[in-house]
Amino acid sequence: MLITNARLADGRRCDVRVDGERIAAVEGGLDTHADERVLDADGDLLLPGMIDTHVHFREPGYPEKETWATGSRSAAAGGVTTVVDQPNTEPPTVTGNAFDSKAERAADSLVDFGLNAGVTADWKPDELFARPVFALGEVFLADSTGEMGIDADLFATAVREAADHDVPVTVHAEDATVFDGSAKERDDADAWSAYRTAEAEAIAVERACAVGREVGSGVHIAHTSTPEGVDAANEAGMTCEVTPHHLLLSRDDLDDLGTFGRMNPPLRSEERRAAVYDRVRDGTVDVIATDHAPHTRAEKDAGIWDAPSGVPGVETALALLLEEARQGRLDYERVRDLTATNPAAVFDLPRKGRVEAGRDADLVLVDPGSPREIRGEELRSKAGWTPFEGWNGVFPRWTMVRGEMVYERDEDGERFGEAGGENVRLSR
To answer: Which GO molecular function entries does the Swiss-Prot or TrEMBL record give (predicted)?
Structure first.
């Protein structure tokens, strides 16, 4: 395959030759080979596919919310070519058998994937580390969906075990001891943000990083929602991620979102949101990941203390960031780095994350001049809703995983490829 007339994130115009699963050449003026399929990019933007290192595809246990088939279709339509699934399914991914069960279901994925192993009081590290685990985590330092919160001693043990097996650790950093219990007397949509305080995140990030330094191992802080948390990770020499919802939404949006805006960690003040955005822009934040957490409308349409936490986002993340770039608030190279190049580097995926010879042909073509309005009912996730209803996003013309088209959209409609995703820890 030869992709002609493409524009890369750094502005270069080039052709890209794909040979099998890999990129063979990235140059200007490549000659067409016999029997080679030619795709004219027509000057549009060619990016490495997004590596979403934080999704909850809910299978096994909750197929009414999401399956690997529906979640990966949503990913492909959003330009995501690799996803990393978290362990708080049912059963939780804390034993070898549970890991194997999830791996069987992941065979339905259109995109490549990683499977994280979880930590609970009865986890089986020897069984888990004998398997192709992507990372240990999301390790919960406070309860969230699945009630997998653990104490400080078990966290330290888990980090040491992971370091011994050269497995990364990702952390959900909130300290429940400094949650504000007085907020439980309220029933407005902002009560959840008042309850799970910004201080709770900053303290937990500092403690998680201290354990990492003591063990001599890096930790990656998941869905960092405050500038204090980002700074604590950065100052400790650790990495962190920010979600699109913490980047673009704040407590000011909760009057409109209601309980559909409940998440862990919660939305923060507009001032903190803006400060997090500054750190995304200047390079302090390493990764954008979605924490894609599909819940049904019926579940979310409840009281603030009863609704489950989380929002869907795997299909809209890259589109929203590209719209930010189109509006001049980010540049395309930063979007590329946050969504692909940096995740590949942080999590040791040498075949992913760049448009260059020798890398996997995980490619996304977008027309930055053609944004579309985001409508929840049109997204492929089973959730059928989005906190970004009515926002603009720049969505792919097509998405390719290791040289195979998994999504195409044109004037005749859209088409999806077949399931063929692979565990990236078996192929790196």
So the answer is: allantoinase activity; dihydroorotase activity; zinc ion binding
Q: Is 56 annotated as a binding residue?
A: yes
pLDDT in tens, 365-379: 999 999 999 999 999
Active site residues: 291
For residue 169, the enclosing domain spans 49-346
Q: Give the integer Cα–Cα distance in Å for 131 and 98.
A: 11
For the chain, give the number of residues: 428
Tokens representing 109 are: 């994925």
Domain presence at residue 317: yes
Q: How confident is the model over 8-39, as pLDDT tens digits?
A: 999 999 999 999 999 999 999 999 998 899 99
405-412, long-range: CB < 8 A, 24+ apart: 406/76, 406/81, 406/110, 406/111, 407/73, 407/76, 407/77, 407/110, 409/77
| Cα 65 to Cα 89, 183, 357, distances in angstroms | 11, 29, 39
Task: Say how many domains are in the chain.
Answer: 2
295 assigned binding-site residue: yes
Q: What are the residues whose beta carbons fall under 8 Å from the beta carbon of 328, sequence distance 6 or more? A: none
> Does 5 carry a binding-site annotation?
no
Any idea which residue has 């994130």 for tokens? 9
